[in-house]
Amino acid sequence: MRRDAGRGEAGVQVTAPSVKGAEVGRRIGVGLMYGLWKPRVLGSWRVPAGGPVILAVNHSHNIDGPMVMGVAPRPAHFLIKQEAFIGPLGSFLEGIGQLKVDRTTADRTAITRALDVLTEGGVLGIFPEGTRGDGDFASLRAGLAYFAVRSGAPIVPVAVLGSTERRGRLIKGLPPLRSRVDVVFGDPFDAGDGSGRRTRKALDEATVRIQERLSGHLDNARRLTGR
């Protein structure tokens, strides 16, 4: 598959994220996640086997990204806050094909690289809430709608549900070690209304539809897992 670099803001050359790196990251992720916790993966067969797809993941634990990266059936490129790209960790994240994004502005370089992933038929991972919180999809940003409508890629909702117990928790923001973490993949859906519109109104309407689908999936995942 051809992986030409695109051009970001002001015509600056943008390097396409590494597909091989993302596969390496997936293998590392699955080893770490199964070594430190007890993942239970449900519905991974719902992720399309080929073509562009967006994984929309709720975000309540610091391990949500690595967990989904490890257990997803295809290598994924996640949009990750630029604050994480510091020192050796930054080099590692770039090496495994992850995407640095500046959340304080419209990061054109990150947007270009993310769209490149989808144009090349890859998997883009997004935390549509923007930051770690309650993980209930209650407050979605418009970025997910933009990528879905612009690319035409289907969205697969993903619910990561870990233990809320404090006992056994060594680090704040992480489930207790060796506790069960459920990862539930939902049915893919299209965010657009079929008109092909990319106006602000169309994106706002798409965001409402997306929020309804993601919240519905999270409710189903909680019933299914008893969380």
| Percent strand | 15-25%
Number of strands: 9
Largest sheet: 7 strands, mixed
CATH architecture grouping: 3-Layer(aba) Sandwich
Q: What multimeric state do the chains show? A: single chain
> What is the CATH level 1 assignment?
Alpha Beta
Number of structural domains = 1
Task: Explain the layout of strands and helices.
Layout: E1 6-7, E2 13-14, H1 19-36, E3 38-42, E4 53-57, H2 64-71, E5 76-81, H3 87-95, E6 99-101, H4 108-119, E7 123-126, H5 143-151, E8 155-161, E9 180-185, H6 200-225
Parallel strand pairs: 3-9, 4-7, 4-8, 5-6, 5-7
Antiparallel strand pairs: 1-2, 8-9
Helix pairs in contact: 1-2, 5-6
Short note summarizing the structure:
This protein is α/β, with parallel strands linked by helices. Helix content is 36%, strand content 18%.
Structure, explained:
This protein has six helices and nine strands. The protein has one domain (25-61, 71-168, 176-225): 3-Layer(aba) Sandwich (Glycerol-3-phosphate (1)-acyltransferase), CATH 3.40.1130. α1 packs across α2 (64-71) and α5 (143-151) crosses α6. It is an alpha/beta fold. Helices cover 36% and strands 18% of the residues. The strands form two sheets. A seven-stranded mixed β-sheet has the order 3-9-8-4-7-5-6, sandwiched between helices. It has helices spanning 19-36, 64-71, 87-95, 108-119, 143-151, 200-225; strands at 6-7, 13-14, 38-42, 53-57, 76-81, 99-101, 123-126, 155-161, 180-185. The radius of gyration is 17 Å and the shape is globular.
Supply database-style keywords.
alpha/beta, Glycerol-3-phosphate (1)-acyltransferase, globular
